[in-house]
Amino acid sequence: MKKSHLFSITYIAFSLAVVAPISHADEPRNEFGLRANVLVGDGKPANDMLGVGLVGRRYLKDGWFIGGSLDAFAYDLERPVSHLGIRQDPNVDVIDADGSMTTVAGLVGREYGDANNGFRWFWSLGVGIGIESVDDVSGPTDSGGTFDLTFDAGNDIQLQGAIGTSWYFSSRWSASFTARLEHHFMDIKITDRISGATSTIDSQTPVGAYLSLNYRF
After folding, report:
1. Model's pTM, two decimal places?
2. Which domains does the chain have, with CATH numbers?
3. Counting runs of H as helices and runs of E as strands, what totals does the chain give?
4. Does the pLDDT at position 117 exceed 90?
5. SS in 3 state form for 46-86?
């Protein structure tokens, strides 16, 4: 995961952690969480996407909330040369490309359960935009030649759905486990500098989960 992504998330997390305890509202309506993410795909283009992020909510009436999230992911773009119909030398370990993505999303949802402590469950729907980057890769082909791939990654528009449960061990602190399903409208163009062959990856539908530690204020 790129250092700039981690620095940005760490800085925001520290700032909110300092500001959050200042609020003394009788009924806290804001929530801030730090989370660890995993998304699992079918290998086209990625298998596992691991990341860290922040999620915030503003609670309205009757359990409804609005919110947003900021996440940074790192992943391997699996066997990118296969998208061009080029075969890698089978005597060489599979060559993947290193990818990263920073996603900003807005969401709306509803929470159900005890207003003070114990378990509560929730669902949410959201729309996000991911900014992606994929590193160049090169290697040998099965015909004795070589490939040299470059990637032009556009923005990744995402539809997000989640359902989960939170354990409130106080009126303000909780831990959440959340299952998630997403569809990504992607735009990654792959070009082989040697042959001139091109291909485009336009979508994926990963499933996954996240664990978060949350504070209400």
Report:
1. 0.82
2. 3-22+29-216 (2.40.160.20)
3. 1, 11
4. no
5. EEEEEEEEEEEEEECCCCEEEEEEEEEEEEEECCHHHHHCC
